[in-house]
Amino acid sequence: MDLSHPHNNFVMQNMSNIMLAKEVFASLLPRDLSQIIDWHTLKLEKDSFITKELKELYTDLLFSCKKKNGEDIQLYFLFEHKANP
């Protein structure tokens, strides 16, 4: 295990667990938004993409899900930490 970025490793490992991610999102998002999401549809998306210009992009953690009305949405989880306060 690479310990050069322990906070990043911790978040990536734990938030890759869909059950835990559901709980975190549901508790952190504003209540009105959390209530319209169909949490059973939450899934972790791939971490790299190729643009139309053939540029490769990488994400931290990207989740997709549907709203209860069936509309697709994406949730991007960005966890920032500081080495020093």
Explain the layout of strands and helices.
Layout: H1 6-15, H2 18-28, H3 31-34, E1 37-44, E2 48-50, E3 56-58, E4 61-67, E5 72-77
Antiparallel strand pairs: 1-4, 2-3, 4-5
How much helix, percentage-wise, in residues?
25-40%
Instruction: Determine the strand fraction and express it as a percent band.
Output: 25-35%
Shape: flat
- In round numbers, the mean pLDDT is 79
Summarize the structure.
This protein is α+β, with helices and mostly antiparallel strands.
Question: How would you describe this structure to a colleague?
Answer:
By secondary structure, the chain is of the alpha+beta class. The chain has one domain (6-77). Helix content is 29%, strand content 32%. It contains 3 helices and 5 strands; from the N terminus they run H-H-H-E-E-E-E-E. The chain has helices spanning 6-15, 18-28, 31-34, and strands at 37-44, 48-50, 56-58, 61-67, 72-77. The strands form 2 sheets. The protein has a 3-stranded antiparallel β-sheet, covered by helices on one side. Strand 4 (61-67) and strand 5 form a beta hairpin. The radius of gyration is 15 Å and the shape is flat.
Question: Which key terms come to mind for this protein?
Answer:
single chain, 85 residues, 32% strand, two-stranded antiparallel sheet, alpha+beta, three-stranded antiparallel beta sheet
